[in-house]
Write a structure and sequence with these properties.
By secondary structure, the chain is of the alpha/beta class. The chain contains eight helices and twelve strands. This is UDP-2,3-diacylglucosamine hydrolase.
Length: 265
Protein backbone atom coordinates (compact mmCIF):
# COMPACT_ATOMS: atom_id res chain seq x y z
CA UNK A 1 0.00 0.00 0.00
CA UNK A 2 1.63 3.24 -1.17
CA UNK A 3 1.23 6.09 1.28
CA UNK A 4 2.16 9.78 1.23
CA UNK A 5 3.30 11.28 4.52
CA UNK A 6 2.65 14.96 5.22
CA UNK A 7 4.47 16.49 8.17
CA UNK A 8 2.36 19.37 9.42
CA UNK A 9 4.23 22.57 10.19
CA UNK A 10 3.40 24.46 13.41
CA UNK A 11 0.31 26.62 12.97
CA UNK A 12 -0.54 25.09 9.59
CA UNK A 13 -3.69 23.19 8.57
CA UNK A 14 -4.95 20.84 5.89
CA UNK A 15 -8.15 21.81 4.06
CA UNK A 16 -10.59 19.70 2.04
CA UNK A 17 -13.38 20.74 -0.36
CA UNK A 18 -15.42 18.87 -2.94
CA UNK A 19 -18.23 19.02 -5.48
CA UNK A 20 -18.29 22.64 -6.56
CA UNK A 21 -19.75 21.75 -9.98
CA UNK A 22 -18.83 25.11 -11.44
CA UNK A 23 -20.66 25.79 -14.69
CA UNK A 24 -24.00 24.48 -13.35
CA UNK A 25 -26.83 25.18 -13.62
CA UNK A 26 -25.79 28.12 -15.84
CA UNK A 27 -22.87 30.57 -16.04
CA UNK A 28 -24.68 33.36 -14.17
CA UNK A 29 -25.61 31.27 -11.11
CA UNK A 30 -22.31 29.43 -11.19
CA UNK A 31 -20.39 32.71 -11.01
CA UNK A 32 -22.04 33.57 -7.68
CA UNK A 33 -20.85 30.27 -6.21
CA UNK A 34 -17.41 30.68 -7.78
CA UNK A 35 -16.99 34.06 -6.10
CA UNK A 36 -17.89 32.51 -2.76
CA UNK A 37 -15.35 29.71 -3.24
CA UNK A 38 -12.67 32.26 -4.14
CA UNK A 39 -13.40 34.19 -0.93
CA UNK A 40 -12.96 30.94 1.00
CA UNK A 41 -9.59 30.27 -0.66
CA UNK A 42 -8.54 33.82 0.20
CA UNK A 43 -9.42 33.11 3.82
CA UNK A 44 -7.55 29.82 4.15
CA UNK A 45 -4.39 30.81 2.27
CA UNK A 46 -2.87 32.31 5.42
CA UNK A 47 -2.67 29.04 7.38
CA UNK A 48 -3.11 26.31 4.76
CA UNK A 49 -0.23 23.91 4.19
CA UNK A 50 -2.20 21.53 1.96
CA UNK A 51 -5.46 21.83 0.02
CA UNK A 52 -7.28 18.72 -1.16
CA UNK A 53 -9.80 19.35 -3.96
CA UNK A 54 -11.74 16.10 -3.83
CA UNK A 55 -13.41 16.04 -7.24
CA UNK A 56 -16.12 17.57 -9.41
CA UNK A 57 -14.65 21.05 -9.26
CA UNK A 58 -16.33 21.50 -12.64
CA UNK A 59 -19.73 20.24 -13.71
CA UNK A 60 -17.99 19.08 -16.87
CA UNK A 61 -14.38 19.22 -17.93
CA UNK A 62 -12.70 17.90 -21.05
CA UNK A 63 -9.28 18.69 -22.43
CA UNK A 64 -8.60 18.64 -26.12
CA UNK A 65 -4.99 18.87 -27.31
CA UNK A 66 -5.09 22.65 -27.66
CA UNK A 67 -8.43 23.57 -26.06
CA UNK A 68 -9.85 23.65 -22.53
CA UNK A 69 -13.40 24.69 -21.51
CA UNK A 70 -14.20 28.40 -21.48
CA UNK A 71 -14.55 30.09 -18.12
CA UNK A 72 -13.31 29.40 -14.57
CA UNK A 73 -10.39 31.81 -15.02
CA UNK A 74 -10.76 33.35 -11.56
CA UNK A 75 -11.06 29.98 -9.82
CA UNK A 76 -8.07 28.58 -11.67
CA UNK A 77 -6.14 31.78 -11.06
CA UNK A 78 -6.80 31.61 -7.31
CA UNK A 79 -5.73 27.96 -7.19
CA UNK A 80 -2.53 28.99 -8.99
CA UNK A 81 -2.01 31.79 -6.47
CA UNK A 82 -2.26 29.34 -3.57
CA UNK A 83 0.19 27.01 -5.28
CA UNK A 84 2.61 29.91 -5.84
CA UNK A 85 2.41 30.68 -2.09
CA UNK A 86 3.80 27.21 -1.42
CA UNK A 87 0.51 25.47 -0.59
CA UNK A 88 0.53 21.93 -1.94
CA UNK A 89 -2.64 21.18 -3.90
CA UNK A 90 -3.92 17.66 -4.51
CA UNK A 91 -6.73 17.27 -7.03
CA UNK A 92 -8.87 14.11 -7.15
CA UNK A 93 -10.64 13.57 -10.44
CA UNK A 94 -14.39 13.08 -9.94
CA UNK A 95 -17.11 11.64 -12.14
CA UNK A 96 -17.80 15.05 -13.73
CA UNK A 97 -14.19 15.95 -14.50
CA UNK A 98 -12.91 12.45 -15.19
CA UNK A 99 -11.55 13.57 -18.55
CA UNK A 100 -8.97 15.69 -16.77
CA UNK A 101 -5.54 15.20 -18.33
CA UNK A 102 -2.42 17.25 -17.63
CA UNK A 103 -3.64 20.87 -17.65
CA UNK A 104 -3.76 21.37 -13.86
CA UNK A 105 -0.43 19.64 -13.43
CA UNK A 106 1.44 21.52 -16.16
CA UNK A 107 -0.16 24.96 -15.86
CA UNK A 108 -0.70 25.18 -12.09
CA UNK A 109 1.44 22.46 -10.54
CA UNK A 110 -1.29 20.46 -8.83
CA UNK A 111 -0.85 16.77 -8.11
CA UNK A 112 -3.72 14.96 -9.84
CA UNK A 113 -5.08 11.58 -8.71
CA UNK A 114 -7.45 9.31 -10.62
CA UNK A 115 -8.13 6.82 -7.82
CA UNK A 116 -8.10 6.54 -4.04
CA UNK A 117 -4.96 7.47 -2.13
CA UNK A 118 -3.53 6.83 1.33
CA UNK A 119 -1.97 9.58 3.43
CA UNK A 120 -0.46 9.94 6.87
CA UNK A 121 -0.91 13.36 8.49
CA UNK A 122 -0.31 14.27 12.10
CA UNK A 123 0.24 10.61 12.92
CA UNK A 124 -3.24 9.73 11.59
CA UNK A 125 -4.02 7.40 8.70
CA UNK A 126 -6.27 8.69 5.89
CA UNK A 127 -7.98 7.06 2.93
CA UNK A 128 -9.04 9.75 0.45
CA UNK A 129 -11.14 9.38 -2.69
CA UNK A 130 -13.80 11.19 -4.65
CA UNK A 131 -15.94 8.14 -3.94
CA UNK A 132 -17.63 7.34 -7.24
CA UNK A 133 -17.73 3.66 -8.15
CA UNK A 134 -16.40 2.39 -4.80
CA UNK A 135 -18.14 -0.29 -2.81
CA UNK A 136 -21.08 -2.51 -3.75
CA UNK A 137 -24.01 -1.52 -5.93
CA UNK A 138 -24.09 1.64 -8.05
CA UNK A 139 -23.94 -0.69 -11.06
CA UNK A 140 -25.60 1.73 -13.48
CA UNK A 141 -23.01 4.38 -12.79
CA UNK A 142 -20.14 1.87 -12.96
CA UNK A 143 -21.28 0.79 -16.42
CA UNK A 144 -21.56 4.41 -17.48
CA UNK A 145 -18.06 5.17 -16.20
CA UNK A 146 -16.63 2.29 -18.23
CA UNK A 147 -18.13 3.86 -21.33
CA UNK A 148 -16.87 7.37 -20.48
CA UNK A 149 -13.33 6.14 -19.77
CA UNK A 150 -13.18 3.81 -22.77
CA UNK A 151 -10.33 4.98 -25.07
CA UNK A 152 -12.47 4.47 -28.17
CA UNK A 153 -15.33 6.57 -26.77
CA UNK A 154 -12.88 9.28 -25.76
CA UNK A 155 -11.28 9.23 -29.21
CA UNK A 156 -14.65 9.78 -30.91
CA UNK A 157 -15.68 12.49 -28.46
CA UNK A 158 -12.53 14.55 -28.95
CA UNK A 159 -13.30 14.87 -32.67
CA UNK A 160 -16.54 16.70 -31.94
CA UNK A 161 -16.32 20.47 -32.21
CA UNK A 162 -15.88 21.77 -28.64
CA UNK A 163 -19.05 23.88 -28.86
CA UNK A 164 -21.10 20.80 -29.72
CA UNK A 165 -19.30 18.50 -27.30
CA UNK A 166 -19.70 20.89 -24.36
CA UNK A 167 -23.40 21.44 -25.09
CA UNK A 168 -24.08 17.69 -25.11
CA UNK A 169 -21.97 17.02 -22.03
CA UNK A 170 -23.45 19.82 -19.91
CA UNK A 171 -26.97 18.71 -20.82
CA UNK A 172 -26.20 15.14 -19.76
CA UNK A 173 -24.41 16.31 -16.62
CA UNK A 174 -27.47 18.19 -15.36
CA UNK A 175 -30.30 15.98 -16.64
CA UNK A 176 -29.02 12.48 -15.95
CA UNK A 177 -29.57 11.74 -12.25
CA UNK A 178 -26.78 9.17 -12.09
CA UNK A 179 -24.36 11.85 -13.26
CA UNK A 180 -25.85 14.92 -11.58
CA UNK A 181 -25.94 13.45 -8.09
CA UNK A 182 -29.67 14.07 -7.64
CA UNK A 183 -30.02 10.46 -6.47
CA UNK A 184 -27.56 11.05 -3.62
CA UNK A 185 -29.22 13.77 -1.53
CA UNK A 186 -30.71 11.65 1.26
CA UNK A 187 -29.01 9.50 3.86
CA UNK A 188 -29.94 5.89 3.10
CA UNK A 189 -28.79 4.28 6.35
CA UNK A 190 -25.47 2.67 7.18
CA UNK A 191 -26.48 -0.68 5.71
CA UNK A 192 -27.28 0.89 2.30
CA UNK A 193 -24.68 3.64 1.92
CA UNK A 194 -22.14 2.11 -0.46
CA UNK A 195 -19.23 4.25 0.77
CA UNK A 196 -19.92 3.35 4.39
CA UNK A 197 -20.05 -0.34 3.48
CA UNK A 198 -16.80 0.06 1.56
CA UNK A 199 -15.11 1.82 4.50
CA UNK A 200 -16.19 -0.83 6.99
CA UNK A 201 -14.77 -3.55 4.76
CA UNK A 202 -11.45 -1.69 4.59
CA UNK A 203 -11.33 -1.48 8.39
CA UNK A 204 -11.29 -5.28 8.57
CA UNK A 205 -7.81 -5.39 7.06
CA UNK A 206 -6.37 -1.87 7.37
CA UNK A 207 -5.79 0.68 10.11
CA UNK A 208 -7.52 3.86 8.91
CA UNK A 209 -8.41 6.80 11.15
CA UNK A 210 -10.28 8.93 8.59
CA UNK A 211 -12.15 8.04 5.41
CA UNK A 212 -12.78 11.25 3.48
CA UNK A 213 -14.95 11.37 0.36
CA UNK A 214 -16.74 13.75 -1.94
CA UNK A 215 -19.39 12.65 -4.44
CA UNK A 216 -22.35 12.23 -2.09
CA UNK A 217 -23.07 15.98 -1.62
CA UNK A 218 -24.55 15.30 1.83
CA UNK A 219 -22.12 16.55 4.53
CA UNK A 220 -21.65 13.98 7.25
CA UNK A 221 -19.30 12.75 9.97
CA UNK A 222 -20.02 9.21 11.12
CA UNK A 223 -18.28 7.15 13.78
CA UNK A 224 -17.41 3.70 12.44
CA UNK A 225 -17.61 1.40 15.45
CA UNK A 226 -15.18 3.56 17.42
CA UNK A 227 -12.39 2.68 14.99
CA UNK A 228 -12.52 5.50 12.45
CA UNK A 229 -14.40 8.53 11.18
CA UNK A 230 -16.33 8.40 7.92
CA UNK A 231 -16.65 11.84 6.32
CA UNK A 232 -18.67 13.14 3.40
CA UNK A 233 -17.45 16.63 2.58
CA UNK A 234 -20.77 17.89 1.20
CA UNK A 235 -20.87 20.40 -1.65
CA UNK A 236 -20.65 24.03 -2.74
CA UNK A 237 -24.18 24.07 -4.16
CA UNK A 238 -26.42 23.76 -1.10
CA UNK A 239 -24.12 23.41 1.92
CA UNK A 240 -20.85 25.22 1.12
CA UNK A 241 -19.00 22.89 3.46
CA UNK A 242 -15.33 22.12 3.84
CA UNK A 243 -13.09 20.04 6.04
CA UNK A 244 -10.10 21.16 8.09
CA UNK A 245 -7.54 18.97 9.83
CA UNK A 246 -5.24 20.22 12.59
CA UNK A 247 -4.61 17.16 14.78
CA UNK A 248 -8.37 16.54 14.58
CA UNK A 249 -10.93 16.84 11.79
CA UNK A 250 -13.78 19.38 11.62
CA UNK A 251 -16.51 19.89 9.05
CA UNK A 252 -17.44 23.55 8.67
CA UNK A 253 -19.71 25.81 6.62
CA UNK A 254 -18.41 28.91 4.85
CA UNK A 255 -20.59 31.99 4.81
CA UNK A 256 -24.33 32.40 5.39
CA UNK A 257 -27.49 31.50 3.53
CA UNK A 258 -26.78 27.79 3.36
CA UNK A 259 -28.46 24.64 4.50
CA UNK A 260 -27.60 23.64 8.04
CA UNK A 261 -25.21 20.77 8.57
CA UNK A 262 -27.04 17.51 9.32
CA UNK A 263 -26.49 16.26 12.89
CA UNK A 264 -23.50 14.00 13.51
CA UNK A 265 -24.41 10.34 13.31
Amino acid sequence: MLKTTINLEPGKKVYFASDQHFGAPNPKESKIREERFIRWMDEIKHDAQVLFLMGDLFDFWHEWKHVIPKGYVRVLGKIAELKDRGIHIYFFVGNHDLWMKDYLEEEIGCTVFYKKQYFEMGGKQFLLAHGDGLGPGDKGYKRMKKVFTNPVAQWFFKWLHPDIAMKIALYMSQKNKMISGDEDKEFLGEDKEFLIIYSKEKLKTQKIDYFIYGHRHLPMILDLEGKAKYINLGDWISYFTYGVFDNDFELKTFGTGTKKLPPKR
